[in-house]
Amino acid sequence: MKKGFPFASVMIAILAGAYFLIPLYATFQFSLQMVRGEWSLAAYRAVLGSNVFLATLSFSAIASFTAIVLGALIVVPTIYWVRLKLPRLRPLIEFLSLLPLIIPPVVLVFGYIRLFGSNSLLPLTTSDVGTNALLVVGYVVLSLPYMFRAVDNGMSVIDIATLTEAAESLGASRLRTIVSVIFPNVRSAIVSGAFLTFSISLGEFVLASLLNRPAFGPYLVQIGQDRAYEPAALAVMTFALTWACMLMMQIFATKKPGTRLLPRFRFRPAKEMPA
Amino acid sequence: MSMADAASKGERMLDPMPAMNFARRWNWSWLGAAPFLLFCLTFLVAPVLYLVNGAFQNPAGTYTLDNIAALFSPNMLAAFSLSMRLSLFSAAIGSVFGLLLAYAVILGGLPSWVRPAFMTFSGVASNFAGIPLAFAFIATLGRLGLVTVVLRDVFGFNIYSAGFNLFSFWGLALTYLYFQLPLMLLIVTPAMDGLKAEWREAAEILGATRRQYWRMVALPVLAPSVLGCFLLLFANAFGTLVTVYALTGSRFGVVPIVLFQQIQGNVLYNPNLGYALAFGMVVIMAVSNILYLVLRNRAERWQK
After folding, report:
1. How many helices and strands, by DSSP H and E, does chain A display?
2. A47 or A122: which leads in pLDDT
């Protein structure tokens, strides 16, 4: 089995690369064709100048950020506590956190609409605030598997028991231990889960549409039905944003625990700079 | 002070002791997991159980199997069959090409920068489902898409008059491939990495050809992983709603689309049939995910 030039492998890689890259290039080129006969950024200007675009994008951004904070508040203390005190509960917690992968979003929101409708114990869908809360809760549930995995991986590489004992023997309360010892150590894991949550919920369509929220996903679908060139511009921007989120996530996921999120800026004398 | 008083006082004084013991024995630490459990129960388990319960009731509230039976009516069967076929095809194509790509990238002797490049891209592309993906494919293979136009003007081949249509079964399958292929690459890579060089050397020493090595050693070892990944891809395609909706609106009646319309306006004229439809979806998703986990455990035997 001697190895010659890997002809088959090169062909496969080129074909796959073409399949992956051509749609991206085509979308980009299409987005420049709004003005007939020339390349222009008119489609981007049309999108960015639209009030609906800004309103829906900021609505979805706020919903996503709220979902990230709520998700972290629910997931981080639970994983800490289960790893520290309740290892027997771990299979149950893990099962629950993976359950959203089995439940399609359309089924989940169907259950929400029926269970939290006008004649239920908790009539959330009758008010705007309640429906927004339900949307955020839905995003927390949809991103639960990813947030859980990220934070759990982050906690598995630090020695929680020793850190907790050390904090307690120095007189720290339980809350203080979590806030100023455990949290800084899993900060980059939380951030990596947060970026994934953000990329899932920013353009989410099913929940937002069926809960009738003015979010970015339904706006995208509407534009796709009404316009020709703006959708391509939006796709390019969304793809760039997804790339940014994923890159950030990978950077933070591979960070060592306890390191700073950003390099500290400080002015050093020139002689201290490494050659 | 009477005897009775003293006795009751004594009782009261003794009383706290067993209670405290009980409190000490009773493990209060599970309360720490209560917020999470309560959240999951309220916003994940309860809504689904509500639908499942409704699937077995008629509108009057008595328990019946009528809704489940109605899932096998021609209309519903057509939706399920369309969903199944689309998911099976896109999962099959994704598995085969994903496996080939994984082979090429990992074992194919390509330059070392190829693998991280494909892996990073796959991490992004497997999350690039939904509306922007539909837009990208309209700009590529739609009637005015780049590839359509280049094939027509440069090569004189009109794919639309040749029978291709992006807004049809095969167009959707091709679009799904854009997130199925990267997903397959990501999840089959550990199995490919698990093929030990020693097995191949042993096979070579015993005089096996390259084909024999693949047929009798590598593929049987990979089979559970590949089958498991196929099921995961199947579930992934089965649950997809947004890509279909953004490409074809509600014209393409896969199960999630039918359910979407049912929620919007009770198009089935029977709320409980809607519950049964949701129940059917969850069952299919659950079965394929559980089989995936079983197969993955089986595949991991070789990695010890």
Report:
1. 12, 0
2. A47
CA closest to A230 among chain B residues: B135
Beta bridge partners of B57: B63
Contact flag B132-A203 (C-beta cutoff 8 Å): yes
CB-CB contact of A215 with A59 (8 Å)? yes
ipTM tops the 0.90 cut: no
pLDDT tens, position by position, A138-179: 999 999 999 999 999 889 888 889 999 999 999 988 888 888
User: Percent helix, strand, coil in chain B (nearest 5)?
Assistant: 75, 0, 20
**Two tokens at A156?**
């598995």
User: Is A107–B282 a contact, with Cβ atoms under 8 angstroms apart?
Assistant: yes
* First-residue to last-residue Cα distance in chain B: 76
Whole-structure pTM value: 0.85
Beta carbons within 8 Å of B256's beta carbon, 6+ residues apart:
A104, A106, B83, B238, B239, B240, B241, B244, B281
Indicate the class that CATH gives domain A58-226+244-258: mainly alpha
Q: Which residues contact A100 (CB under 8 A, 6 or more apart)?
A: A108, A141, A142, A144, A145, B44
Angle of the A128-156 helix axis to the A183-201 helix axis, nearest 10: 130
Domains recognised in chain B with CATH numbers: 73-303 (1.10.3720.10)
